[in-house]
Design goal:
about 90 residues; mainly alpha
Length: about 90
């Protein structure tokens, strides 16, 4: 088994596929949040509610995307830590 790469070849960036997957998950989270926000306001409003349902969809999309971005960021950091330490426990002596 080969050792770790030399310091000049190391990178803190996660693999490209993982970054694209994280980006796609943020988009999906925003889409789902937008649909939930739209439906939440649409169920409560009667009559002409185009502005309110649009605002509900926008706020839901922003909230869903922001929440998913936090999860994706933590996941990518955990992947990098796992790759760096290889699942070994660190002695805290």
């Amino acid at each position: 088994m080969a050792g770790p790469p030399p310091p000049e070849q190391r990178s803190a960036l996660p693999p490209k596929a993982a970054r694209w997957l994280a980006f796609a998950s943020i988009l999906i989270g925003g889409l789902c949040g937008g649909l939930i926000g739209f439906a939440f306001i649409d169920l409560q409003c009667e009559g002409d509610c185009g502005l309110w349902t649009g605002l509900g969809a926008l706020l839901g999309a922003l909230g869903g995307a922001a929440g998913m971005a936090v999860v994706a960021n933590l996941t990518l950091r955990a992947m990098e830590e796992w790759r760096t330490f290889g699942g070994r426990r660190q002695d805290r002596g």
